[in-house]
Amino acid sequence: MGFVRTVRGFVRLGLRDQVRFTAAWFLLGFTRLLILALPFTVVRRLLGENQAEPGTHQAPVLSASQQFRAAHIGRIVEAAAAHAPWRSDCYPQALTARTFLAARRIPHVVSFGVRRDAGALVAHAWVHAGDVTVTGGNGREYTEVGAFAWTPRVSRKR
């Protein structure tokens, strides 16, 4: 019955959201593969500008339409992750959301943090676009150890 409910939910989505969901689902798989195959030092280059002092970056100001799109991207990525047969935790979700945000030219920050949980070190990744939490929550429970900001380049017309 769960599969039937899932198919009905997918069919109820509009065509655009069906395409976005499908793209997010495949991109989650691709980013998971990247995470397994490449060291973080390589993936890091794809994330944006490294913020020298984590926790000190300013959230970019977004228009109302950019905020709406960023929140929508977060919902699509989280829904696709919930239906992926592979592990799609915070890190692949952050990479997927970052890809969609950059494609829509929405400034954002990908953050990485750690915390202690019963003596073990637990890592987490989250994405914010302005004041919008896109994926991974707000990260307040974690000590930010890295942040990567991305803003669209301004094209110069001659």
Q: Mind telling me the C-alpha Rg?
A: 16 Å
The SSE order reads: HHHEHHEEEE
Q: For the terminal residues, how far apart are their CA atoms?
A: 59 Å
Largest sheet: 5 strands, antiparallel
Q: Identify the strand order in the major beta sheet.
A: 1-5-2-3-4
Per DSSP, what share of the residues sits in E-state strands of 2 or more residues? 15-25%
The shape, in one word, is globular
The secondary-structure class comes to alpha+beta
Q: If you average the pLDDT, what whole number results?
A: 86
How many domains make up the 3D coordinates?
A: 1
Helix content: 40-55%
Q: Which segments are poorly predicted (pLDDT under 50) over 5 or more consecutive residues?
A: none
- What is the overall number of helices? 5
In total, how many beta strands? 5
List the SSEs and their pairings.
Blueprint: H1 2-12, H2 15-37, H3 40-43, E1 49-50, H4 64-82, H5 90-103, E2 108-117, E3 120-129, E4 132-135, E5 143-150
Antiparallel strand pairs: 1-5, 2-3, 2-5, 3-4
Helix pairs in contact: 2-4, 2-5, 4-5
